[in-house]
Each structure stands twice: as C-alpha cells, then as structure tokens.
C-alpha cells in the first residue's frame, strides 16, 4: 500500500510505503515480544501468556507508540519496552473480553481463545500476569530516557488501562448489553474508554518518552482520540460485513449480544462517513509536524480502509 499525502501548500506531495513500514515494525515488535516473555516455572502460566501475546495481529498499538516517539525526536529503542507493554495490556483485555462471563467468544486472531485452551482460571491469571508485567517491563527495560519521562509514561498508561479508561468503558459496555435505549453519548463513552483510551496512550506515551512538549502532546492526544473512535466505528461495521475468516474471530457477535453499535444508530453508510471525517480531523492535528508525521498519517488512513 502506497499512500500519497498532501502535507500542505508549502510542501510537495510525499509518498509513503505503509505496507513496508508496517511489516518492518511488526517484525521488530514480534522479536521483542518473544524475548520479553520466556517460559520459566510455573510453565503453564507463561505458556498461556505467550499463547495470546504471540498469536499475531496487526500490532498497530505498539507501532503507533514507536511512530510517535520517532516523530517527537526519539528512537524506536527508547520506546520498544513501552510498545511491548502496550501490546501486553491490549492482549490482557482480549483474553478477559473473550471469557464466558464477558463476551464469551471461542476464537481470537484465528485461534481458539485462551480460556478454550487453558481454562477460565488460567486465562484470568494469564491476563492478570500480562497486565502487571507490562508495568514492570517499562520500569526495568526502558533505557536512555529520563526517569521523569518513564514515570509519566507509567502513570499515563495506568490511567488508560484502569477504571478511568479501559475498565470503566468495559463496565458501561457490560451494563448496556441488551438495552435498546443506549444513547449516542453512552456509546461514545464506552468506546472512548474501552478502546480509545489505550490507543490514545500508545501515541502519547511514545511522545512522552521522547520528551515532547505539552503542546505537541495535546496535538497527538487529539489525533489519537479521533482515530481511536474511527477504529471502533470500523470495527462495528466489520462485525456486520466481514466473515469470521477475515476477522479472525466470531462475526456478528454484537447483533447476537443485542449491543447498540454505531451502524445500529446511524446505518453503515453514515458510520463510514463519520469514521472518515474523524480521520480527516485527526490528520489536521499533525499538519505542524510536516513530513515527520507521514507514518501516523498513513496509519490513520489505513484504519478506515482495513478489512479486519
């Protein structure tokens, strides 16, 4: 995929090969994740953690972290421990979301879900293990970053993964299941917290590690919040339009669970339009960065064009 992006009237049009960029970054992240979590005693829990952590996926969240760190003048090596930690927390959320007490799904990333292989008890503990190890990993493995920036990164990620973010959104999602009168405001709250908070942390934490200014962190936060909501809208659409093979998980789960989604409120065409507008608004936040923003701009476009 080659994306041509207009960077403004004062700059020539630049082309960016997103496919190559994503492939290279994903390869580096896979290597880092594999080495981050060796199997030691008790082996079963480490095997269960690795089963889901290394099950593939687009790795968009850690890639966003690396890209934002580079945009802000940092290096991928500075951000790689945090990028891995973000994928650990994301994987925890998938393991727990798939449990019978939650979404009760049998497949994730084209493989049996963790609890289907290891049982509910080990799956819960595997998620817990990934969540806690993520913070240890940032604290102990981050190098060449001022301690204050590491501390700020951990605090920001802690908020995103906690009750003020991912967990809070999940709670409202569970409470809203089966209700037909869920408002757009509530739906936005669910996804701004359940999906958007962690995605926003990916972008902001990468820039924090590179000591970005407060103004730049605000721009990147607004960018990330917009693409986070666009990501969720496209997820809702794909749940209706894509096959299980394309998604790597059970299709049509939202309808079966009686969930209110963006297509159920707006229809598919308007949902696409809303997602596209969010991406336009997101990209506008990065105009000040010029060509340094090309990877993030390309990923923003990819979000609305993806098929899984």
Name the features.
mainly alpha; globular; two-stranded antiparallel sheet; disordered N terminus; 308 residues; 14 helices
Describe it.
This protein has 308 residues and is mainly alpha-helical. The chain contains 14 helices and 4 strands. The chain has helices spanning 18-36, 43-53, 60-71, 76-97, 114-141, 147-161, 166-176, 184-209, 214-241, 244-247, 253-256, 262-266, 268-284, 294-305, and strands spanning 2-5, 14-17, 107-108, 111-112. A two-stranded antiparallel sheet has the order 1-2. A two-stranded antiparallel sheet has the order 3-4. The two termini are 16 Å apart.
How far apart are the first and last residues' alpha carbons, in Å? 16 Å
Q: What do the pLDDT scores average to?
A: 92
Record the strand order, biggest sheet.
Answer: 1-2
Structural class label? mainly alpha
Largest sheet: 2 strands, antiparallel
- Give the strand tally: 4
What's the overall geometry? globular
Q: Report Rg.
A: 19 Å
Helix proportion range = 55-70%
Strand content: under 5%
DSSP summary: helix tally: 14
């Amino acid at each position: 995929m080659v994306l041509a992006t207009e960077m403004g009237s004062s700059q020539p049009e630049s082309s960016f090969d997103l496919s190559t960029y994503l492939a290279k970054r994903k390869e580096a992240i896979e290597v880092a994740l594999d080495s981050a979590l060796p199997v030691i005693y008790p082996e079963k829990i480490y095997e269960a953690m690795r089963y889901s952590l290394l099950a593939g996926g687009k790795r968009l969240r850690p890639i966003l972290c690396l890209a934002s760190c580079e945009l802000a003048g940092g290096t991928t090596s500075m951000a790689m421990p945090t990028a891995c930690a973000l994928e650990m927390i994301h994987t925890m959320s998938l393991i727990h979301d798939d449990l019978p007490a939650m979404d009760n799904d049998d497949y994730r990333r084209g493989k049996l879900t963790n609890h289907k292989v290891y049982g509910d008890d080990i799956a819960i503990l595997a998620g817990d293990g990934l969540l806690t190890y993520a913070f240890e990993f940032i604290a102990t493995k981050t190098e060449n970053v001022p301690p204050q920036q590491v501390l700020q990164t951990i605090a920001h990620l802690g908020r995103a993964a906690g009750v003020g973010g991912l967990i809070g959104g999940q709670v409202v999602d569970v409470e809203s299941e089966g209700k037909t009168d869920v408002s757009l405001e509530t739906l936005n709250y669910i996804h701004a917290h359940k999906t958007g908070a962690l995605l926003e942390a990916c972008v902001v934490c990468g820039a924090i590690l590179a000591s970005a200014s407060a103004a730049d962190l605000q721009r990147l936060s607004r960018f990330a919040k917009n693409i986070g909501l666009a990501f969720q809208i496209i997820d809702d659409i794909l749940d209706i339009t894509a096959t299980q093979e394309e998604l790597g998980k059970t299709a049509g789960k939202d309808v079966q669970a009686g969930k209110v989604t963006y297509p159920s409120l707006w229809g598919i065409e308007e949902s696409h339009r809303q997602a596209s507008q969010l991406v336009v608004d997101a990209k506008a936040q990065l105009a000040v960065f010029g060509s340094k923003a090309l990877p993030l701009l390309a990923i923003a476009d990819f979000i609305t064009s993806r098929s899984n």
